[in-house]
Task: inverse folding
């Protein structure tokens, strides 16, 4: 009987022991706290739903300590031992033909938990409880539990002088899951205690209620019960005890869970557990389920995710989640955060209130470093709904800033930077940068989640909204390029997010080559929806690889029907940035446009913050290819679109470029309400070093009054406009602008366009999409286009440059064509 009375202490001790070992395995460090200390208002236990008798139990007070609990357990053990001796005669009188010899043996098996408390004259099912325990009873063929309170006939054994009379009421705790006979030779058989004896009897809810019906009908305070009812009760207990394959104590459950090799075995063990499922025991079981899944499958793999789906749908696991939701107030910070972290990794949907409930009970003002580590792993998941989230983050960040000097591993530092960095002061951010530099050797290691720590570093500085020294970034780039750690899609996204926001400041293309190579490997196996955003970000830097883009297009053709409007728009964005033209361009773009129209409703239900801007960009990227879908143009240039984008400088520029492109190539699609100033160019050309060098050489070819500096219709490309007669004679510029079309038979417009490196893809002579759009619009306005690319100009002598310009302007009769 002692192990039953000490079950409460044992489960806390055992859970604490196994939990700390699991913590060390996952985070590679030792926790400094005991996560299984009940520190608040106790807990309630129930199975399928809320326990209606929970309010009748005496909760543990916040002042209850581990030593107090031990003393209470020891006191109950002594009282129970004395009462057993005094009441042995009484037990013999009510004994039946059950194989159980006496109530002491019943208690050892664990189906009937009874403890005599001489000081309070009571029989209690939970050591140290002031009121009746929860009594669980079977409900037919399903696993359901109710509560009942059983009065007993008054007994008055002879006690010593210091003792008082026994209370007139006896409380029993019964638990018998139905349907255990169906598992005659289950996988749990070798792990179940040998003291459990099989019996084919079944207990129904009606039988139990028949025995307890007199209790419900008696008035408050009644203590009379017949001898026959007592005998029926003992017979019922015998049947409960002898149910097959039942796990009766916390120790047995923990031993079975620890020995289980799969999450399914753990869930089976929980199903056959007949004791009280405390919140601490629930947290331990959930962590074991998560740990076994990680052992069986690589985290984030398809097999791992499939197993998570199976676990989440399991009835026993949903019961564990319900216990956590209703008892979150009784858990300390470490247990709350560990449960939340495990559930997130088990892919529990955020639509359920479980994880927000657990996090809402965290005392953020008293977080330790280990708890900060767990909290940061939880908050790394976006869109978790938190109550008073600003207070939550600000207080957590203030605690985290105090712990920064104590952090001795880069993984913990990066996680904290990700979650709370944007709330840090500037000095704290600089301290984080210094810490990362000190711990830079660890960047070569693989993080516990299987990802590259160097990629985590890019993500951490991005989320902290801080651009570190370039040497730190170069160091992380070298790690990604040279390390053998596999690059995952999340790593690629992390690097791209930082570089898109703060620029790609590296001297070479090795990092982009590495990331594109990893992307290329996944094109044939992953679904298109998994890499469209990464490919779009890759082309933002004008990285061009023909084979890679061709493979990308083939994947899009394969999965086009599975993509929503935003994903299709990202695909078009990626292609237009580097101006990649598929082999069957007409068919491909027509199919894409038709699919976009079908998926247009998904635009307003997607994650995009500005759906109308996305619509405008999609229309502009079609215009890069010289395509103007009428319905899409009408939507992008609607009155509501125009009024919304007029005040936003970034979006307004795309609106102006789209309107001017339409006015040049498809003026019939321009709406009548379009403001005239959108079609007028009010900007002043801005020249950089390359354009200034071309201008200086041009001045040596002809005087200043024979050319004028202008801006392209779109994208603000500066170019020089000259006017020539058909015999090659230059005309002085009297009026700005192009010569009207009716004079083209006598005078020719010549547009000299400098093309620095920024007009081409990285390390390539392949012109980007905007460059090609500008050249095409200039030709549409009646100009002969002369290009001065950087690869034909840089590092050349002045004489070579003058000859190049003279030959192109006076001798060349056709347009230049870029690759």
Result:
């Amino acid at each position: 009987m002692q192990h039953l009375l000490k079950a409460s202490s044992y489960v806390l001790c055992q859970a604490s022991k196994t939990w700390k070992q699991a913590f060390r395995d996952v985070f590679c460090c030792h926790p400094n706290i005991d996560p299984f200390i009940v520190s608040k208002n106790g807990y309630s236990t129930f199975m399928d739903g809320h326990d209606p008798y929970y309010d009748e139990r005496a909760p543990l007070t916040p002042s209850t300590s581990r030593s107090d609990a031990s003393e209470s357990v020891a006191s109950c053990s002594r009282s129970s031992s004395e009462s057993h001796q005094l009441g042995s005669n009484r037990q013999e009188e009510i004994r039946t033909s059950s194989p159980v010899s006496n109530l002491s043996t019943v208690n050892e098996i664990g189906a009937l938990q009874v403890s005599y408390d001489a000081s309070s004259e009571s029989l209690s099912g939970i050591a140290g409880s002031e009121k009746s325990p929860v009594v669980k009873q079977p409900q037919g063929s399903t696993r359901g539990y109710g509560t009942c309170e059983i009065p007993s006939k008054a007994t008055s054994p002879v006690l010593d002088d210091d003792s008082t009379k026994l209370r007139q009421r006896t409380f029993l705790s019964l638990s018998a899951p139905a349907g255990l006979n169906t598992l005659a030779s289950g996988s749990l058989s070798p792990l179940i205690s040998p003291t459990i004896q099989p019996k084919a009897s079944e207990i129904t809810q009606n039988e139990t209620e028949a025995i307890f019906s007199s209790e419900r009908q008696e008035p408050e305070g009644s203590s009379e019960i017949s001898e026959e009812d007592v005998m029926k009760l003992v017979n019922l207990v015998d049947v409960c005890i002898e149910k097959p394959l039942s796990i009766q104590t916390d120790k047995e459950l923990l031993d079975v869970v620890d020995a289980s090799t799969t999450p399914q075995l753990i869930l089976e063990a929980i199903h056959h557990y007949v004791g009280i499922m405390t919140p601490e025991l629930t947290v331990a079981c959930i962590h074991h389920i998560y740990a076994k899944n990680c052992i069986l499958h690589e985290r984030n793999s398809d097999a791992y995710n499939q197993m998570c789906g199976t676990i989440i749908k399991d009835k026993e696991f949903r019961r564990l989640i319900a216990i956590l939701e209703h008892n979150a107030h009784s858990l300390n910070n470490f247990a709350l955060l560990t449960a939340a972290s495990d559930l997130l990794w088990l892919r529990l949907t955020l639509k359920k209130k479980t994880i927000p409930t657990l996090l809402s009970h965290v005392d953020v003002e008293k977080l330790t470093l280990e708890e900060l580590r767990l909290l940061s792993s939880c908050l790394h998941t976006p869109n978790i709904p938190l109550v008073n989230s600003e207070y939550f983050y600000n207080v957590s960040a203030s605690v985290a800033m105090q712990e920064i000097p104590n952090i001795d591993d880069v993984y913990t530092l990066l996680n904290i930077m990700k979650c709370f960095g944007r709330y840090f002061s500037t000095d704290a951010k600089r301290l984080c940068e210094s810490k990362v530099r000190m711990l830079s050797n660890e960047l070569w290691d693989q993080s516990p989640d299987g990802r590259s720590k160097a990629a985590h570093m890019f993500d951490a500085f991005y989320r902290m909204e801080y651009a570190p020294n370039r040497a730190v970034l170069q160091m992380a780039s070298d790690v990604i390029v040279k390390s053998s750690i596999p690059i995952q899609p999340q790593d690629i996204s992390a690097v791209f997010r930082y570089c898109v926001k703060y620029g790609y400041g590296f001297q070479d293309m090795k990092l982009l080559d590495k990331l594109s190579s990893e992307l290329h490997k996944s094109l044939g196996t992953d679904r298109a929806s998994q890499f469209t955003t990464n490919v779009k970000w890759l082309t933002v830097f004008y990285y061009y690889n023909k084979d890679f883009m061709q493979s990308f297009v083939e994947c899009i053709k394969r999965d086009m029907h599975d993509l929503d409007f935003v994903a299709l728009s990202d695909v078009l964005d990626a292609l237009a940035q580097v101006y990649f033209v598929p082999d069957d361009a007409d068919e491909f773009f027509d199919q894409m446009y038709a699919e976009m129209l079908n998926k247009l409703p998904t635009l307003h239900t997607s994650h995009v913050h500005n759906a109308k801007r996305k619509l405008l960009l999609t229309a502009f990227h079609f215009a890069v290819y010289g395509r103007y879908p009428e319905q899409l143009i009408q939507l992008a240039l609607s009155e509501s679109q125009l009024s919304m984008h007029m005040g936003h400088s970034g979006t307004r520029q795309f609106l102006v470029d789209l309107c001017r492109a339409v006015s040049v190539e498809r003026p019939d699609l321009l709406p009548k309400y379009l403001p005239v100033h959108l079609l007028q160019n009010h900007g002043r050309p801005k020249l950089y070093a390359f354009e200034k060098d071309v201008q200086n050489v041009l001045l040596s070819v002809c005087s200043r009054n024979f050319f004028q500096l202008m801006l392209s219709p779109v994208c603000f490309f500066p170019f020089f406009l000259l006017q020539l007669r058909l015999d090659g004679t230059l005309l002085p510029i009297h009026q700005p602008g192009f010569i009207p079309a009716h004079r083209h038979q006598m005078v020719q417009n010549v547009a000299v366009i400098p093309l620095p490196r920024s007009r081409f893809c990285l390390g390539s002579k392949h012109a980007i999409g905007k460059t090609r759009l500008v050249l095409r619009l200039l030709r549409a306005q009646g100009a002969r286009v002369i290009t001065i690319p950087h690869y034909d100009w840089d590092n050349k002598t002045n004489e070579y440059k003058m000859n190049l310009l003279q030959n192109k302007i006076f001798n060349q009769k056709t347009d230049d064509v870029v690759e």
